[in-house]
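Pilot study result, target chain (890 residues):
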Amino acid sequence: MADGSLIPAVRTTCPYCGVGCGVSGRAEGRRLAVSGDVAHPANEGRLCSKGSTLGATVGLEGRLLSPMIGEREVGWAEATSLVARRFAQTIARHGPDSVAFYVSGQLLTEDYYAANKLMKGFIGSGNIDTNSRLCMASAVAAHKQAFGADLVPGCYEDLDHADLVVFSGHNAAWTHPVLFRRMEAQRARGQRHVVIDPRRTDTAEVADLHLPLAPQMDVRLWNGLLADLIRRGAIDRSFIAEHVNGFASVEAELAQADQSPAAVAADCGLALADLQTFFAMFAETPKTVSLFSMGANQSAQGVSKGLAILNAHLATGRIGKPGACPFSITGQPNAMGGRETGGMANTLAGHMDFAPDDVARVARFWGAPKTSPKPGLKAVDMFEAVHDGRIKAIWVMATNPAVSMPDAGRVREALAKCPFVVVSDCMADTDTMAYAHVKLPALAWGEKDGTVTNSERRISRQRALFPAPGSAKADWRIVAEVADAMGFGDAFSWASQASVFREWTRLTAFENLGRTLNLSGLVGLSQAGYDELEPVQWPVSADRQGTPRLFTDGRFQTLDGRANMMPVASKGPATACDPAFPLSLNTGRIRDQWHTLTRTGLAADLWRHAPEPFVEIHPEDAAAVGVTEGGLTRVQTVRGEAVAIARLTDRQRRGGIFMPMHWTRAYGPSGRSNGLIAPNIDPTSGQPEFKHTPARVRTYRETWKGFLIDRKGFAPPPGLDLVWRRIPQTACTLHEFAGRGDEDEREVLRRWIGEPTGELLSYGDPATGARRDAWISGDRLERVLFVATGGALPPRDWLADLFEQDVPPTARATLLFGRPPGPVIDKGPTVCACLKVGTRTIDDAVRGGAATVEAIGAATGAGTNCGSCRPEIARRIAALNTLKETQDAA
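Predicted structure:
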């Protein structure tokens, strides 16, 4: 890139997690340099590993750039006409509830608003739901029951003021690393951290206290805490009397079970001393923030878990005060924007519900007399309705439910059976796009222009860095053009995204006699004002001032202005134990990847920390079934099977296993985890249970294995039952594979990938089935293929590095050995993805005297960029120090 200082910076917002970090981008052509926006209050210049590599994800490889009907490229007019006609015909024949939209927290607020208006207002059905149903719906329901509306009371500033932070099912070090760094800075002044999680995550590793909770015992733990607070006299009876309903009912519910610390500890699978330490810490620390995220929400008891957390804060008056609040942290960059605009099937826009007065108000504002009078189907039920034929046309926007939904195999069956599937996305090849009858090219991050709302209710601008490529369009405009073709054009005749935003702000203020979500201060914002909009937290006053913290006056959005404490009972796991499936499967995110890899999969550096699907399992559970470290392992539930690399670790609770949710057909079809998950849902929120599925593990028992490194990526050969993983590298793509067949199976693989041109170097041993091939064109390495029926395969790093340079003559002689002509430099598994620092380098620095994370950073650079790896560095320091102490003692 040319001198970056000569290119004007554009301030925008990161497209990943709900922290909502500001990004400063300098674009030249399709190249992009990014840094953190030091003026954005959410991150103050920090970016995590994913945000730091955004520049590697903005190329046009793999993009959908033209509308397609089947496999035929068409113009927008033809595609839009077909979508409008098929939806209109389906509605005419089967009613408005025969169609549905499934949308995404990747959409901008303007996109969400347009889609919700079309479905609920003008089609007249509630059948629009969002993938935020999979991550935040239970928190939404808990907020509504307790506060009268979906209102997140806290702000990031509370994390600076808090003396105690409780992470409930929240691995912030991986999922919200910029916030974690913010809290890490507060540890120096004495802020303490408690982590409630069945896994000893990186967040738990550096906490003051880790409570490795048994599956689904969250309500039992929080109820036990509240009972202990009552016994201690640590509740705020004055606050309860003035501002809270339902305390007596909650007390009565607590009396139904033995709430002694010993009983609670036994039920939760915790050491009594640890439980009592937590109870005392909470009771003695007025400035407490309780962060809860997927571990609490993704449960058939998610709403009860949220309410139990809210109860503890309401009973102690720890809400609406600096450093004291329950704080739901969203997963996606605009999950909050979707919640605001009615992206969920059970809400209308502007935090209105389906009460007759709300429906009439929205209908008046939109001029839409057919506005849906009732909620639609939530995500799991929606795809079940597609499967059984009640929904006959579905439009999926900016999400990948064929991978991300529970029981994903059944979702794929549903899409395959559906008479009409429309998918609008920026990528041409996703698991969901494979089922689309019509494919609509949408803008990607860096091309989109609009607003998003982060976890602390802060509205930020996402600004375009590049012009629209090909025929791609903004999602809101695609929706508006379809609406126009359906005959609703007058209501969707926006000139720009600023026009959509202005209408949205007017709706929040329309007949608003007490709704907290109110953007009246932004009504009438000019185009210039919209372009220059600074981050602001809602509600926004008439003088355009934001509101950092809610409920400071003890008033809530209920009819009487009082919060509601709700009695909740502990129920244990939703699925009973089965001797055939004795383990509990927990799924979630990893540090350096995002959702289904359509964006982060393009950044080679983000593959270095966890390059393949894996399953974490306790060593004793692994030993019982013969599973070994690094071995291919079958993970089975009643829903299906996946194959992943085994990682044996005592950080995983006995009886539980963990798998990441990211892998797809394009990168690791056998490693997809969500097909294993039963579609059990919370009866109130409809949020699926991703944290506890009965499972078992077995060894895969491959008969052969190999790897292919090539300058392009390959899909797995059709018709072969192979374990296949595609791992992008800097200048090539690594493919790992294994099978349980014979030589015929290996020959099919070789025919599938073909042979490139160039000089072939080859080695084969028919007796052992080993084969090693390398193709060189001039001085350029084109491909290497290694296959073995036994023994270890050579390291891949050196071979992959050769694709970045000319092949030196000295390397040719040793190429088929898979090692350089000189000493082998083993970096070990990557710890710091930003600077490519491995475990061996860090270990050497520790042995050389580096005793702190900061000292490791000074010696190696690790942890000095985004800081996401700092907890892992701390863990390696501790492990090596423990080893040294043991050796010295011996």
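One observation from the pilot: The chain has a mean pLDDT of 95. A full batch analysis is planned for the follow-on phase.
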